[in-house]
Amino acid sequence: MERESISPFQLFLLVMLFELGSAVVVPLGLDAKQDAWIAILLALVPAVGLIWLYSFLHRRYPNRTLIGTLQTLLGKPTGWTVGLLYVTYFMYIATRVLRDFAELLDASFFPQTPMMIETVLMVFSIAYVVSLGIDVIAKTGQIFACLYLLSLLVAVLLLLFSGAVEMESLQPVAEDWKRIFEAAFPVVYTFPFGEMIVFTMLFPYVRPKSNVMGTAIGAMVLSGLVISLVVATEIAALGANIVSRGSFPLLTTIAKVNIADFIQRVEVLALLILIVGLFFKIALFFYAALIGAAELFRRKSHQPLVLPFSIILILLSMMIAGNLPEHIQEGLKAVPWYLHLPMQTGLPVLLSIIALIRGRSRKAGV
Amino acid sequence: MRKKRSARKGSKSLPKQLQYRDQDRLFSSLEENLSKIQQEMGHSSDLVIRRIEAGTDPKHSVALVQIEGLVDDRRADEFLTKSIMVDSAPMDVETPFYDFVKENALSMSNVQLVSRWEELFHALLDGKTLVLGEGWPEALCADTAGGDKRPVTEPALQTVIRGPRDSFTETLSTNLALVRRRIKSSKLWVQSQQVGKMTRTEVAVLHLEGIADPDTVKEVIRKIRQINIDGVLESGYLEGFIQDKTRTPFPTVYNTERPDVIAGGLLEGRVAILMDNTPVALIVPTTFFQFLTSVEEYYQRWDIATATRILRFLIFTISLMGPSIYVAFKAFHPTLIPTELMVNLMAQREGVPFPAIVEAFLMEITFEILREAGIRTPRPLSTAVTIVGAIIIGETAIRAGLVTPSMVIVVSITAIASFATPSYSLANSARLIRFGLMLSAGLFGLLGLTLALIVLVAHMNSLRSFGTPYLIPVAPFVPRDQKDLFIRMPWEALSTRPRTARPLDDQRIPEGQDPEPTRDPKEDDPS
C-alpha cells in the first residue's frame, strides 16, 4: 500500500462527485415515470445498509483494501482469484462509464469529433492524474467538486427561476408502488449507490480514521437527495416521457433556461457537469483497479501499470458494445443482475459473515 | 623579530615548503609576499600595491595592498594613517615596530590578522585593505569594503500606491539593514554562507527564531550548502537549485524586491533568502495564492482589499484562458453563444481566411514579439516599436481582413490581464500555459479545455514548496486560513498566522483587539 492519505472532508467530496458523476446526466429510475425521484430515495435506504456493511469490513481490517481483506478472509488462492475478479470488475465499470461519456459527448456537443478522440483524450488526462496518486486525486477532486456542485446548484436555481418548471408534471405522486419498487431495485440501488464498493479500496487511506462510515453515509445520502432533486426538476421541466427517452436529459432541461433573454444558453453548465463528473468517476474506478492490480501482483507502485491499463481501457471501451442501444441494454438488463448484485452485495455479505464467524471463533478459541 | 617568528614556527612545527599552496602561511620576506600576490593575481591592473617607508628610525618597509574600486578610499586612508603612519613619539626602541603596529591597529574596529594565503586572497577580493611588512608573519587586514553602490530606490516591478517606497539594492548589507530596520527583534536570525567556487557570493538566510519552522530553516540551509557551481549571479540560480520540482511551469519559490514583503513573510514564519549582487530576494515556503496577492492589500481597508483580490483572481483567469475560451466557443460551440452575439461574431469572420485557432495563435505570437521587443529595444527606438505595433497590429491587420476585430479585443484584454498579474514570474507561467490551453481548446473545444484544466490543477496539486502543498489552503482545505485568501478579513480578525509555513507559534494578535468607538471625554467628566 502506498503511503498517502486523504482527509474525511476530501472523502466526503469524492463520494459526492462519484455518486453524482454519471447519475445526474443519464435518465435514472425513469421506469417509475414521474415517481423516479421516489424510486431514487427508496433505493437509498438499503444502500445505507450496504455502506454500513462495507465500513464494518473496514473496521475489522482498517489497514487493508478490499483486495487485502479478501485474501485474509478467503485464504490466499481463493482470495487472490476473487481479487482479480474485482480488479476486472472495476476496469469493466470504468470502461462502461467511459463509453457512456463518449456516447453522450458525441450525441450532444461534438457530433463531428470521432468518439475515439474523445475517449483517448479522456483516458490520457485520467492516466496523468491517476499516476500522481490518491493524494493528488483527492485534492483535485475537492476543487472540482466545489465547482461541480456550484454548477449544479446554479443550473437548478436557473431552472426554477426561469419558469420552465411545472409541478403538475410530477403528479400523481406515488402512483404505482410496484412500479417504483421495480425501478429502484436493482437498477438504482446498484447504480449509482452500490458502486460505492470502489471506496473499499480507498477507506484505508483516510486519515484520521475517526468516522469513515459517517462521512461515507452522509455524503451518499446527500448525493442521493441531490440526484432525486435533479431528476424531479428534470421531470417537472420536461415531463417524464421526454426525460425517459432522452439520453442526456440534464442538457435538454438546462437548454430550457431563458431568463428575460438575458441569461440563456447555459448548456455549458451541463457540459461541465458531464465532463467533470464522469472524469472523476472513471478516475476512481481506474485507480481502484490499478492499486488492486498492484497489490495482487505485489508491485510497490501502481505507476508502471498506468500506461498498459489505459490502453486496455481505451480499446475495451470501443469493443464492449457495437452501438449505443446495445450498450444501454447491457447496462440496464445484464450488468445490474449478473455483475453489480454479486460484486456489490453478494460477496461483501459473504465476507462479513466469514469475518463475524472468524471473530467469534477467535474469541471462543482464546 | 626574527627570533619571535622562528619561535612561532617551532611551536606549530610548520616546515617551510618551497611550493606555493593556498593553505600555506605567508613568507616573512615582504618582497616574496608581494611578488606572490602579483603572480597569483596575474599582474592584474586593478591590483594596487603602495610601498611605504614607515617609522622614523629605523625605517620599516611596509606595503599596502588593495583592489581598486572595491575599496572605500577614505576608509583605507584613515586606516593607514591611524595604524602605520602614527606619530612615532610613543614608539620606543624596546617595542618592535610590528608589535606596536599590530596593537595599535587591532584596537581599531574591523581589523583582523591573516596568516594564510587563502585567507589573504579572500580578504583582498572582499574589498579589504591589507598591510604587509618586512619580516611580518601576518598581514593586517582592515575592512574597507566600499566602492560604488546603487542607492536605495523605488521598486521597479512591484509598485504600490500606498506603502513604503524603498526596494532592495545589489548590496547585501544594505538589504539586510532594510529588513532589520523593519523587524527590530533579536529573534531575527541571519545565517550566511558563500555560494559559488569562483564568485563566492554571500547568501544570507533569514528567519524569525521561535516562529519559523526549524526544519524548513535547516532544509533551506542544507539545500544552499549543497549547491556546487562555479558562480551564482542572480537569485534565479538559487531558485533553480532549491526548488522541489524542476519540471513545472509554475514558480515554487516566491521572489520580491520589496523589503516589506520579506518582513511580512518572515512574520508569517517563512524563511527569506537574500543574496549579494541582486535586488531580488527569495522567500519560502511558497504557495500559488501568494503570487496572486499584492502587499498593498494589507495596507488598504479590508473591504477594498477584498474587492481587489477577487478582481485579481478574475484577471489571472482571463490571462490564462481568455483566448482559449473564445476559440473553443467560436470554433466548436457556436450554438452555445447567444444568437445575436453569434451573428455579430460570424459577420466579422466574413472574409477572414484563417480558422479561429490560427487567428488566435497569429495574434498571440505577434503580441509576444511586440512585448519582447518592448523590453529589449534600446530606449530611443521604443517609440518606433509602439507605433508599428499599434498601427500595424491594431488597425491594418483588421482592415486587411486577416484577423477579426473581436479576436484583437480578446488578445488585448488578455495582454492587459497578463500585465495586471501582481507577480511577474506567475504572469510568465500563465503566458506559457495559455498557449497550451489555446491548442487544446482549438483542437478539442470545451472538452479539451476542461480536461486541460483538470490536468493543470492536478499538476499544481502535485507540487510542493519545502513540503507545503502548492494550493494550500484550498487543497488541502484549511478552514482557518480562508480569512486571508479570497477575502482579506479586517486586521483584528487575522489573529493567527497562516498554516502554510507551519509556524511554531500560531498566535499573531492576542484576543480582545477589536476596535471600539472612542469614548467621548465629556461623558467621563463627572461634572
Automatic annotation (TrEMBL), chain A:
Localization per Swiss-Prot or TrEMBL: Membrane
PANTHER family: SPORE GERMINATION PROTEIN A2 (PTHR34975:SF2)
Alphabetized InterPro entries for the sequence: Spore_GerAB
UniProt xrefs under NCBIfam families: 2A0309
Similarity comment: Belongs to the amino acid-polyamine-organocation (APC) superfamily. Spore germination protein (SGP) (TC 2.A.3.9) family.
Keyword tags: Germination, Membrane, Transmembrane, Transmembrane helix, Transport
Origin superkingdom: Bacteria
Source organism phylogeny: Bacteria, Bacillati, Bacillota, Bacilli, Bacillales
Pfam families xrefs: Spore_permease
GO biological process: spore germination
Gene Ontology terms: cellular component: membrane
Membrane topology term: Multi-pass membrane protein
Cleaved signal peptide residues: none
Protein name: Spore germination protein KB
Transmembrane segments: 12-30, 36-57, 78-95, 115-138, 145-164, 184-205, 217-243, 268-293, 305-325, 337-357
From TrEMBL, chain B:
Keyword Transmembrane recorded: yes
Pfam families: GerA
Biased composition (Basic and acidic residues): 502-527
InterPro entries: Spore_Ger (IPR004995), UPF0353/GerABKA_families (IPR050768)
Gene Ontology cellular component terms for the protein in this record: membrane
Coiled-coil stretches: none
Positions of the UniProt region annotated as Disordered: 497-527
UniProt keyword terms in alphabetical order: Membrane, Transmembrane, Transmembrane helix
Listed transmembrane segments: 310-332, 352-370, 382-402, 408-427, 439-460
GO annotation terms (biological process): spore germination
Family: Belongs to the GerABKA family.
Protein name, entry field: Spore germination protein KA
Species assigned in the record: Melghirimyces profundicolus
Record lineage: Bacteria, Bacillati, Bacillota, Bacilli, Bacillales
